[in-house]
Design goal:
The protein is an all-alpha fold. Helices cover 91% and strands 0% of the residues. Helix 2 (90-122) runs antiparallel to helix 3. The longest helix has 82 residues, at 2-83.
Length: 166
């Protein structure tokens, strides 16, 4: 009876070891696949990162190329505008080039002269506030603001337009 019990116990133990070996074998066959899946996932993630960097670099190259084309177009436009500016006759070219500056200087001298005479007339009053209110009016402020806005506004507008083109 003891031998039968021992044989039954040995058979049961053999069966349990066999089952345990089967389970371990099954689970151990999954482990390499899990490593492959993890490795594949990591590789694909890495490839996507590389592709994202390539796309970003390509976009930067395209932006640089577009900016270069835009700058070239601006240069060509400026050259086309100034191409008609020169006649290869020195006197005519000098006169043509001096029109805007001469007008600007003439109006500035006229404006300064008017303000000088206003100051001479109002100078008899000793109150500085009255003198400043007479010489520097709202019209003077508007003229000054218009001139400053004209000279600096063109640059700001060009920068804004260039940034919106991108």
């Amino acid at each position: 009876m003891a031998t039968t019990f021992f044989i039954n116990l040995t058979n049961k133990l053999d069966i349990m070891i066999t089952l345990l070996a089967s389970i371990v074998g099954f689970i151990s066959s999954i482990i390499p696949e899990l490593f492959k899946i993890t490795s594949d996932k990591h590789d694909k993630k890495h490839e996507l990162e590389i592709m994202d960097r390539q796309i970003a670099m390509t976009n930067k190259k395209i932006d640089t190329k577009l900016e270069s084309i835009s700058n070239f177009a601006d240069i060509e436009e400026t050259n086309a505008i100034y191409k008609t500016f020169y006649s290869n006759i020195l006197f005519i070219d000098s006169l043509n080039a001096s029109v805007r500056p001469v007008l600007a200087y003439a109006f500035f001298i006229l404006y300064a002269t008017v303000k000088y005479f206003q100051f001479q007339i109002v100078n008899t009053v000793s109150d500085l506030q009255v003198i400043l209110n007479t010489i520097w009016t709202e019209d003077d402020q508007a003229i000054f603001a218009g001139i400053i806005s004209f000279y600096f506004g063109q640059r700001a507008i060009n920068k804004i337009l260039k940034s919106r083109r991108r």
